[in-house]
Amino acid sequence: AQSVAQPEDQVNVAEGNPLTVKCTYSVSGNPYLFWYVQYPNRGLQFLLKYITGDNLVKGSYGFEAEFNKSQTSFHLKKPSALVSDSALYFCAVRDRYTDKLIFGTGTRLQVFP
Amino acid sequence: GAGVSQSPRYKVAKRGQDVALRCDPISGHVSLFWYQQALGQGPEFLTYFQNEAQLDKSGLPSDRFFAERPEGSVSTLKIQRTQQEDSAVYLCASSWGLAGPTDTQYFGPGTRLTVL
User: Fold this and answer.
1) By CB distance 3.0 to 4.6 Å, which of A87, B8, B82, B94 could disulfide with B25?
2) How many CB pairs under 8 A join A and B?
3) Alpha-carbon span B111 to B9, nearest angstrom
4) Which of A100, A107, A108 to mutate to test the interface with B (most CBs of B within 10 A)?
5) Residue A2: exposed, middle, or buried by beta-carbon count in 10 A (0-12, 13-18, 19+)?
6) Which residue of B has its CA nearest to A100?
7) What is the pLDDT of residues B31-75, one digit of tens each?
8) Residue A62 phi/psi, 5° resolution?
């Protein structure tokens, strides 16, 4: 079965510091990986996706993610965190046989001024 | 352009009532998905349409849940005889449906259902 894991329930970082939100995946075949962000009382906003090609994917709002096949990871990164980045972040993998997304449990990012 | 819209944004139902949740996808999007997000959890797949055809309903938790998309655009998720465990945020997403698994799903704001 395909799955993603987000090992950290919460990540705390000071404004201006780099941030990393971790995600590992378990799939058979090529993975199609996504990151979404959720603000309070809002739906999920798409940040970026990995399909194939360059292992460093750039997305919205200055976020990027690094695909690492040997470590089966797809960590979300940003060089300099903003207080406004504080939100809930979800990693997801596209199911190999259907088009549905399988989500992790989410990581709450708290950026302190 | 307009994104995915959902209505109502909030719904309170008494246990045993029927509810209907509406989703308006992005214009032209062929694929439409429903997900259920329990408090503190990630979204979980319920069902999937391609145009008006319901291709996958494996995530619907019981036969009290029913979804339709009769004209291939607006979709309605109906829950009959609501139970307290149905309390959750129901998210709708749509995608072009032309690129297969590389398509990006765009989500609406969700409907928060509370069953008393």
Assistant:
1) B94
2) 67
3) 4
4) A100
5) middle
6) B45
7) 999 999 999 899 999 999 999 999 999 999 999 999 999 999 999
8) 80, 5
